[in-house]
Amino acid sequence: MATYGRFPVKLERGQGVWVHDSEGRRYLDCVAGIATCTLGHSDRALRRALTQQLRKLQHVSNLYAIGEQEQLASWIADNSCCDQVFFCNSGAEANEAAIKLARKYGHSRRGINQPLILTARSSFHGRTLAAVTATGQPKYHRGFEPLPEGFAYFDYNDIPSLEAALQQHSDRAVAVLLEPLQGEGGILPGDRAFFSRLRQLCDERQLLLISDEVQVGMGRSGTLWGYQQLGIEPDAFTTAKGLGGGFPIGALAVKNYAAVFEPGDHASTFGGNPLACRAALTVARELQQRRLLENVQQRGEQLQQGLQQRVQQWPQLLAGERGWGLIRGLLLRDDSISAIDLVKAAMAEGLLLVPAGSQVVRFVPPLVINRRQINQALQRLDQALSKLAA
């Protein structure tokens, strides 16, 4: 179906941070499947692990214990603040699970018959009907009314707005679902003082704080999880995208006291199957063995400095840069050019970028990108900016 406004490029193969199209052109990929291909394209370790897994077992359903799933759940619990994990296939499904968990928590623990979840304006939580309603952007709502009831919004990083929303909905609020860094909302990092106050308010009011780690999780921010950038612990978090390194898998992780699901409450036919969990276990192992968090920190600083230099060099086009690690946004000056304009210009120079709203261009390369490749990306960006300026 015509649900995507696709670029006129057909990608056929890739290796590391490079992809090739059907016409033989090579591109430096700073999209990575939209922050998904953690290890880049056709990674040797991932190829080997999935080939071996296919010789053993690919899917059996959750009617039975799955060894690979148990290993992955243990890794997430050992490397996060949470204790239990539910597996699914995508970020939207993980957030759907979180929404159901929050509502069940409201009913069973708080005695609230019509539980309400607070989310931030300009957020993005997925495309299913509940997740798109949780998304605080009206453009994603249009044409899909009536939307599910039980959501209210406040301004991101705005303590008075948050407090006013909590006061207005004090009799129904059960959870706050929030991105540590707003991705589709323009690569806007969370403010530590705001999140500290949010954690305090959730504790005082017995609300679940749920961190949407779908885009920033699995090391992209420079720490394993985005909430670690903010000095707080959530009661639950969702993750997907980079978790499987390009293979579909999502997860909802929760602390023991928030684990209100019982048998029959929620399920996923493909969720946590042996093949998907083997992909995620491989990504987890490679993150640690290759010291990719250190690489993200170093290459993120290099990219940040490079983008800041371009902002100074092209003040008529660029207004600033922001982000964490290897999720960075380049802000355009005004409406004279759009994010799509810059993405197209960069594509013509062999650099793949992705918009984050109408006036922000996103850099989310594979976490294996090296110093030379960052420099190559910046050089190609220069060529694109030169042509747009002319």
CATH topology of the largest domain: Aspartate Aminotransferase, domain 2
Annotated CATH architecture of the largest domain: 3-Layer(aba) Sandwich
The secondary structure category is alpha/beta
Strands of the widest sheet, in order across it, are 4-12-11-10-7-5-6
Biggest sheet descriptor: 7 strands, mixed
* CATH C-level label of the largest domain: Alpha Beta
* Helical amount: 25-40%
Gyration radius, in Å: 21 Å
Give the tally of β-strands: 17
Q: Helices and strands, in N-to-C order?
A: EEEHHHEHEHEHEEEHEEEHHEEHEEEH
Span between termini: 37 Å
Overall average residue pLDDT = 97
Q: Can you say what the CATH homologous superfamily of the largest domain is?
A: Type I PLP-dependent aspartate aminotransferase-like (Major domain)
Task: Give the tally of structural domains.
Answer: 2
* Total of DSSP H or I helical runs spanning 4+ residues: 11
Strand content: 15-25%
Low-pLDDT regions? none
How would you describe the overall organization of this protein?
The chain has about 400 residues and is of the alpha/beta class. The chain folds into two domains: about 10-30 and about 290-390, Aspartate Aminotransferase, domain 1; about 45-290, Type I PLP-dependent aspartate aminotransferase-like (Major domain) (Aspartate Aminotransferase, domain 2, 3-Layer(aba) Sandwich), CATH 3.40.640.10. Helices cover about 35% and strands about 20% of the residues. The protein is built from eleven helices and 17 strands. It is globular. The protein starts with 10 loop residues before the first strand and ends with a helix. About 50% of the residues are buried.
